[in-house]
Design goal:
With 414 residues, the chain is α+β, with helices and mostly antiparallel strands. It contains 15 helices and 20 strands.
């Protein structure tokens, strides 16, 4: 056994935010972790996250924040309490990147970018004795031997401890392919099937509608549906019409419940209130006003019914029905959208399913493989977009690294 802590061989496999946070905690404590990754550079998904505005966390009250993780909230509690939304903001600020709260309560670095932050983070890690071994694709382990596919062929290493931070299986070209599921399953570990989370849903639009409105946001609408357990949900927000169906924040918020409903019934119907700030009776009254010589479109336009909302009506109502004020008002308030299926995991923002918590102890160490820890999106939890993902994966990286240090200390190896 090494006599000084910097000589401990600690591997972190996966250079995403979960693995990098583990490396930060270990290197700050004087260890010299080695970070392995299959890709030529670190944090590719983190960089991608920055392309749409790097949403680090959310500013809502912590009691609400921690409920965003559905059934996993109890298991994730230690990670989230030990790395709160305030802590992730402090972390960014310590790296030199001030954060701000956007109008929706989401928290971003001032420039909303990931690249400068990642660059600084990696520089600091390297300066503190973290080494990086890129293009090392982890193949498996047998007893104490860990195998990697490298540009020089297969290489084997042995370590005193390993933290696996291999991610989920969305956007696989960025590195997380889910190939680890087979390796860990073959070791007798329990894995919940990987599924898409924060993904779009398929709707058959007419060719005309698709051509005209694909890529168009539907703003200021309320989405409602009944979930697989019979609970009713309704939320105001924005979604995006795409060529294949719908996506966007209002859909992602409910993607878990909608996925479960589609799995239960093979399709599901959700409803949009296209005028959430006008009652059905008010709409009906406005639609019943005499329109004189105006065309129906021009008359509707005066009432604020035009563009994508008017075209949605034309998707489901025939020419005569469109003149029926009561029916139009009713349809505008409860517009049905039939979700036929959900998009594949490759296209999803994140992954549901993964390594089940019952494989792990309170330090996120595998019960059957001492000194092997698992963190991040590879574990069996999910959350909506809104900064919940990054906060939780980094919190788990911190929890496992601190747990590892505790185990080493308790063994008297310091
Ligand atoms: C388009 C997009 C936008 C997003 N925006 C946000 C956002 O704004 N806010 C937010 O909170 N979250 C966002 N996310 C989600 C967030 O990026 C992920 O939840 C987070 O990166 C997961 O971190 P991780 O470290 O667990 O896994 P990853 O970041 O996926 O890292 C896993 C690493 O493991 C490596 N790896 C996998 N298998 C092997 C192997 N066998 N051998 C060696 N290396 C391997 C991969 O190459 C990868 O580098 C976004 C995701 C996407 C796709």
């Amino acid at each position: 056994m090494p006599t000084d802590i910097a000589s401990f061989k600690i591997a972190i496999i996966g250079a995403g935010p979960a693995g990098l946070m583990a490396a930060q905690v270990l290197s700050n404590a004087g260890y010299a972790p080695m970070v392995f990754d299959a890709k030529p550079s670190a944090g590719r998904k983190f960089l991608q996250a920055g392309r749409g505005g790097l949403n680090l966390t959310h500013s809502e009250d912590f009691s609400i924040f921690s409920r965003r993780y559905f059934e996993a909230q109890t298991f994730l509690k230690p990670a989230l309490e030990n790395f709160t939304p305030t802590d992730i903001r402090l972390w960014a600020e310590e790296l030199g990147f001030e954060t701000f709260v956007g109008s929706s309560g989401k928290v971003y670095p001032l420039d909303k970018k990931a690249a400068p932050l990642l660059r600084t983070w990696l520089q600091q890690l390297k300066a503190k004795n973290t080494t990086f071994k890129m293009k090392h694709h982890w193949l498996g382990f047998s007893k104490d031997i860990w195998q990697f596919q490298t540009p020089n062929g297969e290489e084997s290493y042995s370590f005193n401890a390993v933290i696996l931070a291999l991610g989920g299986a969305s956007w696989p070209h960025l590195g997380s392919t889910g190939s680890w599921t087979k390796i860990l399953e073959n070791k007798g570990l329990h894995i919940a099937p990987l599924k898409p989370a924060n993904m779009g849903f398929t709707i058959t639009w007419s060719t005309l509608f698709k051509e005209k409105f694909s890529g168009t946001p539907l703003k200021n609408v309320a989405l409602s549906f009944t979930d697989a357990k019979g609970n009713y949900h309704s939320k105001l927000g924005e979604l995006l019409v795409s060529a294949y169906g719908v996506e966007g924040s209002l859909i992602y918020t409910h993607s878990k419940l909608l996925r479960e409903k589609v799995e239960q019934e093979s399709f599901t119907t959700i409803y949009l209130d296209l005028f959430p700030h006008r009652s059905e009776s008010k709409l009906e009254q406005q639609l019943s006003l005499p329109r004189g010589k105006k065309s129906l479109s021009a008359f509707w336009k005066r009432l604020g019914l035009s563009g994508i909302k008017a075209s949605l009506l034309r998707e489901i109502l025939g020419t005569e029905a469109l003149k029926d004020s009561a029916l139009v008002a009713k349809t505008l308030k409860k517009f049905p959208l039939v979700l036929e299926s959900y998009r594949p995991i490759e296209d999803a923002i994140s992954t549901a399913g993964g390594l089940k918590f019952n494989n792990l102890n309170e330090n996120l160490m595998l019960k059957n493989f001492p000194m092997v820890f698992c963190v991040g999106e590879m574990l069996d939890w999910e959350a909506p977009t809104g900064g919940y993902l990054l906060t939780a994966v980094m919190g788990q990286g911190k929890q496992a690294a601190e747990g590892l240090i505790k185990v080493l200390q308790s063994k008297g190896k310091r």
